[in-house]
Amino acid sequence: MRGRKETLNAGWRVLASACLLASTMTLLGGPREATAQASEEPPPPPAWEWDENDPRIGLGAGIMDAETAISNMDRLVSLPKPEAFLTSEAGGRGPTNSDLTFRGDYVFQGSYWGFQVYDASNPSAPELVVGVVCPGGQGDLSVHGDLLFMSVEQTAGRLDCGTAGVQDTVSTERLRGVRIFDISDMQNPRQVKTIQTCRGSHTHTLVTDPTDDSHVYVYVSGTGRVRSPNELAGCSGLDPDEDQNTSLFRIEIIEVPLANPENARIVNMPRIFADEETGDVAGLWQGGDHGEGTQDSRRTNQCHDITVRADLGLAAGACSGNGILLDISDPVNPVRIDQVTDPNFAYWHSATFNNDGTAVIFTDEWGGGGAPRCRGSDPETWGADAIFRIRDRKLELAGYYKLPVPQTEQENCVAHNGSLIPVPGRDIMVQAWYQGGLSIFDFTDPANPFEIAYFDRGPLDEVEMLSGGYWSTYWHNGAIYGAEMARGVDVFKLTPSEHLSQAEIDAANSVRRGKFNVQDQPRLRWPASFALARSYLIQLQRNDAIGDQSASSLEALLGRAEVLAPGAERNSVLDELEAMAATLQEESRGTGTTRPRDPRRTRLLAGAISDLARSLR
User: Fold this and answer.
1) Nearest to 152, CA basis, from 144, 160, 140
2) Which CATH superfamily is domain 10-33+54-272+302-516 in?
3) What is the average pLDDT score of the chain?
4) Which of 121, 144, 411, 576 is most buried by its number of CB atoms within 10 A?
5) Residue 95: per-residue pLDDT
6) Rounded to whole angstroms, how far apart are CA atoms 296 and 287?
7) Against a cut of 0.70, is the pTM above it?
8) Euclidean distance between the first and final Cα of the chain, in Å?
């Protein structure tokens, strides 16, 4: 599939109805969106310091013509929304784009109006394959094989993907939950199953079981109001003091037989917020602030996002007033093993593990994502990332990260969705900040994160605060994709800088994944390559952790091995490389009073050299 596909879903053409319903939907931003006029009062005093010469300051406003600033990246292309995802509402910007997911060369763009599929085999020129109009709000997506999963939360969502909405308070036509599509024919996705839940699905997490390849599981995070039991039996919005079977204070787990997805069903509704001793289902944060000068945060009766590491049997849940850690070794029966609160957090929103599983980043969606929260007067720790170390399966706060430059009153801005960039030996994340743009930062030292690249646009409007910007920015197979809520999809690539070498970029680009659902976070692994070995060598040099002579000798050997043809001469060089690898391995252990400055990377370099030599023989 390489050309633009003209055969689209039938709903693609129903623009008149689309415009009608779009006026009742959230058009630009999350479900807690807010708009505001610029204040004429003098701005409050700065709460922190920044570089006044940062190019992101003072960018001109506009929709498709806003001024931009970029550092240590190249923008490959900016794709507008397809025609069926535009309406006359909101100045033609149309319903909100939401999250992204990936399968091979395909990029799936979620939307409050359905989803779009792009062929990105050439990331500089992605081609639209199909657009499926299927309203329901949020549109959070995951993919597994030939199945696509989609979250539905709004009361206007219909079982039949229709655009007319649902007018009755109680209706058999309404869907709030999860849709499953068969995408074996990518040009004609076909809905094969719907699963109803009491609060709908704001987000969901696809969970794989390393011991069972015949099923996948879907953890459903519902944040909407509870529907009537007259519409879905068993639903209850009562407080647990009134009804121990309340639909609050739980998640739903859907089991999906891959051979028969039409038999998908809810198999558990675990009370992951319960008090460990009393069993009280409302056992975590009860809402309110943490004292004078702290944030007021919601009661923990829901999760917004859950990110899983199936290989580690762990999940991190961003759940209203708590960050939680779950044991998911049995994916149908997750068990909470730790929980934390933070006086700086208003609403725990999402989570990202580092590759080793020794740290996790939680985001705070202060203001619900629809307000300007990156102003100079806003504290550095509010609406930011909190970085926790994981030690003995417990969470320990290490540090914070927030955009290092202020945004304006006209730009909704807060920490939002991102993913790891697979630079070996380092923890690097690309993250969306709504109209704060995207920021790439290094958190290898969780207590001292720092920015290494960025892209930003000016506000949508010079005067009015219109919600927009990046919902998510993710790295996939050598490119960075940004889901721009008001505009479309942007694609970037990294460029070398003082913070990131070409070798590290090349090593990152060597990592290829067949699928990528960001909340089903895979362990990153790197194939043997010259770029991988050079990445670790460069990192040791940056840290003054390898002698100049050793570094020069190793680079010379790598250079010779790279250009020599197979044969006796190259084998001799490979022998020298393996001998050097053995020496580095020994040095990493330390001898007597001598201790290596960076034993971890020294071991990684030794292993990379040894693997490379073996692969070349």
Assistant:
1) 140
2) YVTN repeat-like/Quinoprotein amine dehydrogenase (2.130.10.10)
3) 92
4) 411
5) 86
6) 7
7) yes
8) 38
